[in-house]
Amino acid sequence: MIKIGFIDYFLDEWHALNYPKFIKEAFGDEFKVAYAYAEMDKPGGMTTDEWCKQFDVERCDTIAEVVEKSDCIIVLSPDNPERHPDLCREPLASGKRVYVDKTFALSKEIAKQIVEHGEKHNTPFFSTSALRFSSELADIKREGICFINSRGPGNFDTYAIHQIEPIVVLMGSEVERIMSVGSGKYESMVIEFSNGRRAVMSHYGWTGVDFEMIVNYEDGSTVKIPQMSDYFPNFIKALCTFFKTGETFAEHDEMISVMGIIEAGNKALNTPSEWVEV
After folding, report:
1. Burial of 153 by CB count in 10 Å (0-12 exposed, 13-18 middle, 19+ buried)?
2. Which of 52, 139, 200, 214 is the most buried (most CB within 10 A)?
3. Distance (Å, rounded) from C-alpha 21 to C-alpha 94?
4. 131-229+262-277: which CATH topology?
């Protein structure tokens, strides 16, 4: 049995409440979330002790204890990525396999620092949105893409990564600048890559719009992706494959690029119709 350790800001959040179930459904007793540390209890929510009792997990008093006891580690805190530099420090110095939940970092520079720290200690790790593993993306040809039109739910602040990640998977990490071109609460961005390639991503709030994409090629051909499906089951399989074999599924330059786009995009929201360098 491969024992997984959780490190979180607080454990009463969607990923910590669902990953143990997803892992067990996919792999049975081959993996177990066995240890957990949380920096605090969620105000007004489930306590760390209550979470550990519910999921039959041993509570650890320090990050170091989780790192020592676990075979591999998941650093969570998906909604508080500002805590990742501190929560990742000991795991990424351990040499053990580490997955860092989205969103990886609040800025391109912080992402670089976290990556450099992990690489310095030869720790295998990656971070990604689950949308990277959508079944529809697997067979999409990546050579010759010149323009992508993407749309999805939510707003840029929380949901941007779920559109940006597939765009970077298909178009690469050589991103140059971004511009906000939306109106009101319907946020839309133009992302420019090397050689003038572009992507437009739009957010439609909670209006029933799902993730979808149209991919356009230099030869005039077009591929429509009407939905993104099976991304969480596929992600869990990839995650546990990484824990077993060390095979990573997101390159570090892509991780840094995605964080740079998000950082620049937040700036672009304050300066509509003006390019912001990534």
Report:
1. middle
2. 52
3. 26
4. Dihydrodipicolinate Reductase; domain 2 (3.30.360)
Q: Please, which residues have CB within 8 angstroms of residue 120's CB and are 6 or more apart in sequence?
A: none
Which residues of the chain are in CATH 3.30.360.10 domains? 131-229+262-277
Where in the chain are all domains bearing CATH 3.40.50.720?
A: 2-127
Residue 103's SS3 state is: coil
DSSP 149: E
pLDDT, one tens digit per residue, over 200-237 is 999 998 888 999 999 999 999 999 999 999 999 999 99
Q: Which two tokens stand for residue 125?
A: 């790790």
Got the DSSP string for 14-54?
HHHHHHHHHHHHHHGGGEEEEEEEESSPPTTS--HHHHHHH
The pair of three-digit structure tokens given for residue 22, joined into one six-digit string: 């997803």
Burial of 183 (0-12, 13-18, 19+ CB in 10 A): exposed
Residue 29 is encoded by which pair of tokens? 């007793």
Cβ neighbours, 10 Å, residue 133: 24
Q: Please say whether the beta carbons of 125 and 72 come within 8 A.
A: no
Rounded Cα distance, 245 and 7, in Å: 21
Q: What is the pLDDT of residue 250?
A: 94
Helix axes 108-120, 252-268, angle to 10 degrees: 160
Q: Which CATH class is domain 2-127?
A: alpha beta
Q: Which two tokens stand for residue 103?
A: 């969103």
pTM of the model: 0.94
**Which token pair is 214?**
């149209």
Cα angle 166-163-209, degrees, rounded to a multiple of 5:
125
Please name the residue that has the structure tokens 């330059």: 253
